[in-house]
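Question: I have long wanted to understand how a fold can be written as tokens. Here is the record:
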Amino acid sequence: MQNITINIPDIYDVNIQKLIEMKVVSSRSEAIRTALKEFFRNEFENLRLLGYFDE
């Protein structure tokens, strides 16, 4: 895995901390990885729907 540094708005961090407290995710890193995975899944689906990939 690669280590990267990002800057996020304070409200994002507040909400990530709430998810950690609720035990939805175990860490900030897990929250960011989950968000990126969902983003890429959605983008792939959008591109597929637009005909960029054969079915």
In short: Residues 10-49 form one domain.
